[in-house]
Every structure is written in structure tokens, then in C-alpha cells.
Amino acid sequence: MAFKFLSVFNNRHFHSLTGNLVTAFFNVLSFALLVRILSLDAFGEWVIFLGTYNVLDQVRTALLQSGIIKFYAGVDEDTAKQVAGAAWYLSLVVTAIFVVASFAVYFIGYNYFESTWHFFIRWIGLLTLFSLPFNFATWVLQASHRFNKIVHIRILQNGSFLAFLIALYLLEQVSLENVLYAYALSLILASAYSLVFRWTLIRSMAFRTKTQVLELYRFGRLIVGSMLSSSLLNYSDNMIIRAMISPAAVAIYSIPQKFMEVIEIILRSFVATAQPTISAAANRKDWPEVARAFARYTGIVTIMIVPFIFLLFIFTKPLILILAEEQYLNATILVRIILLSAILFPIDRFIGVTLDMINKPQVNFYKNLLKLILNIILDVTLVWAYTDVSAVAVASVLNLIFAVAFGYYFLRKYIHIEFKQILVAGWQDIKMLIGKKLFK
Fold first, then answer.
1. pLDDT at 144 over 50
2. CA-CA distances (angstroms) from residue 424 to 202, 373, 420, 427, 430?
3. CA–CA separation, 142 and 272 (whole Å)
4. DSSP codes, 63-80
5. 8 A C-beta contact, residue 407 and residue 350
6. Do 404 and 282 contact (CB within 8 A), yes or no?
7. CB atoms < 10 A from the CB of 257, how many?
8. For the whole prediction, is pTM greater than 0.70?
């Protein structure tokens, strides 16, 4: 019985979850340390900077990750080399654009930025260069289903950053500049590690072909707009809060975002395994199976996150004190507002995934673009009216409700789904999985 129980965890969902848990564990520790060693204003500026870097990183990831997984996995060795080489070529072109653009913004807009951002802007492009090898390695490893190697990379990058922060604290050398140096060094270490073990396939550059480069670009550009619009949601929240309230308010608003990572860990893990399942059914034009897969994954994740939402809601205040300090308790109402809306996270995410996999990325792009536009309008209007960061949380909830309604309406035009099927299918799948593993 014990071995059968352990076998529940021996599946691709759990392996994907493990990688996300490792990342989240170190990220939470780094976050908890940073909120204690930086002032509210300084931490707010760090959140904005890291968000800016992550937007650039998401653009590159959107352009290449899905394409590498689609065209690299399951092909012959020669084709795999051509795909990897083409991906490397595109990666270097995009990264070079980021580096040049960051220095151009620095020189052209020097008089429009504060001194802290003079330093930050010079480094944004360089960070995308430092992170490229290990990011590329994770894409290839994911396509090869070598998730254990991805865990190694994530432990090194996130773990080393935490270690460097601890060292800065003990040596009394904490500053925004040194925090950024520590982050850059953690990226360099992870990339060097990936290069040493030859997980980056950088030598495949010699095998690239124009055909593969164009194929990757044409496929990836369909994903970029959708992912970028989605990534800009939190970023736009933070920028509006900083401009209309203060950097300290950005630091407060980062607390509910960190709470949501608990939900995101589960969601990202199942999205990673749902994509090939839904895509395979769509490629066969098996629309009933696409609908079943959508309902199953959405239902499973929705049911799984309910206990976490309940516990996080009940223990919000003590968890904030563990995560940050007493001055961050003002975020309690923000956390609870966002938590109440989190029950809609799975259906919103899987609507987007399903639209992409059934070759309707333009619909998903319009959904996310409208979601972003509405988010900005609501943020500005409500913050102007109430001058309170909780207005941004309310705007996010209203925006999420709109996105689910919009996406659900259009998804039903392509596949036959009923809202009531989602929880039923999810609950049946959970019972079947547990019963099959424990009582077979």
C-alpha cells in the first residue's frame, strides 16, 4: 500500500510541480529577506526593476519556448540540431536588441530618470544576456522531458541569489546596487553551469537553416502578443501605483502578488502538462477530447486550490508577518480581495491555453489585450478617485471577471463546453487518479 501511495507522486504533474516548488521556496526566502533589509521605497523600486526585466524575459520566452518544444521534441537528430541552432540565432538577435535598446534609453532619456534608474536601465539589457544560456537550457530540457536537470539549474540560480543576499546582510553591504550585482551573478552562475554540462546546445548554431529560423519566428510571434499582454498586467499595476501613489505603495502591493505564487505554483505545473495533451487532441481534430481535457484540467486545479485559498485567507496576517514585517500588515485587505478572485484563475488560464492550442492565438491575444487596456483604465480611474492601493486590487478583480466571461464566450464558438462540466470532470478525475493508484 505504501508503494502504491508513493506512486501517486510518480507522474509528470508532480515532477513539474517539484521544479516550481523549488523556485518558489528560494524566491519566498529571498523576498522575505529583501523586505527586511531594504526600506519600503527601495524595495518598491526593486519590484519595479525586476518586473521590467521579467517583461523583456517573457517576450523572449514567448517567442522561442513553445516553438522549441513543438519543433524539437520527438524529431530526428539532424532536425533537432537545426531547430536548436535556429532558436539560438533568434535568441541572440532578440537579446542584442534588448542590450542596445537599454543603453539607448539610458542616453536618450537620461534627464527623465532618477539616479537609481540611471543605474538600473544600464543593467536591464545585460541581465537578459546573462540569463540567456540557462533559459535556453531549460527550454531544451523541457522539450526532452529532463525535468530533474531543470531543477538543478533553478536551485543554483535561486539558491545562489539567496546566499549572496545573506552575505551582503552579514557584511553590512546592503544597497540596491549590490542587490542587483548579486542577482546578476546568480544568473551568470546558472548560465555557466548550463554551458559546462552542455545543456544549452550552443554548438548547434552551425546547423541553423533559414527555413527553421522563419518557422520558429512565425510560430513564436503568435504567442508573443498574448503573453506580453498578460505579463504587463501586474507590471502596469505597479507602474500606476508608483506614479500615482508612491514606491512604498508598490512594496505593499507586492505582498498579495507573493501570496498568489502559491496558486501559481499549482497552476503553472498543470499548464505545462496540459499544453501537449490539448494540442495533440486539437491536431487530431478531436474536439470532444479537447473539451474534455479543458474541463478536466480546469476542474482539477480549481478544486485543488480551494483549500489553499481558504487557509491563506484565514491566516493572512500571521503569514504576512512571517513573509515580511509589521509595516506590511496594511496589505491584509489587498491579499484577501485578490484571494477571493483566485478561484477564477484556473478557468482564465486554461481558456488562454486552449485557444492557443486549437490554433486561435489571435483570440487569446485580443482577450489579453482588452484585459490589459481595461486594467489600466480601471487602475487609473479608481486610484484617482480613492488614492488607495486597494483600488488596484478591486480593479484586478473586475478585470478578471471580464476576461473569464469574454474568453468563455469565444471558446464556446470553437468547442462544446458547459460550465457545470468543469467541476464535475475535475472531481471525477481526482477520484479516479487516487483510486487507481491506491486500490488497484
1. yes
2. 47, 34, 7, 5, 10
3. 9
4. HHHHHHHHHHTT--HHHH
5. no
6. no
7. 19
8. yes
Burial of 314 (0-12, 13-18, 19+ CB in 10 A): exposed
Q: With beta carbons less than 8 A apart as the criterion, state whether 374 and 237 touch.
A: no
Kindly indicate the confidence band of residue 8, based on its pLDDT and cuts at 50, 70 and 90: very low
Q: Are 249 and 43 in contact (CB under 8 A)?
A: no
Decide: 204 and 81 in contact? Cβ < 8 Å.
Answer: yes
Question: Tens digits of per-residue pLDDT, 187-240?
Answer: 999 999 999 999 999 988 888 888 889 988 887 887 787 778 877 888 899 899
- Residue 112 banded pLDDT, cuts 50, 70, 90: confident
> Residue 118's Cα: distance from chain center in Å?
27
**In Å, what is the CA distance from 283 to each residue of 87, 145, 246, 360, 402?**
23, 21, 49, 13, 29
Q: What angle do CA 210, 215, 221 make, to 5 degrees?
A: 120
Q: How far apart are CA 86 and CA 206, in angstroms?
A: 9
Which residues have a Cβ under 8 Å from the Cβ of 340 and sit 6 or more positions away?
A: 309, 313, 397
Q: What gap in Å lies between CA 40 and CA 148, rounded to an integer?
A: 37
User: Do the beta carbons of residue 291 and residue 416 sit within 8 Å?
Assistant: yes
Matching residue, cell 500606476? 240
Q: So what's the pLDDT on residue 89?
A: 94
Q: Give the N- to C-terminal CA distance of the chain in Å, as an integer.
A: 10
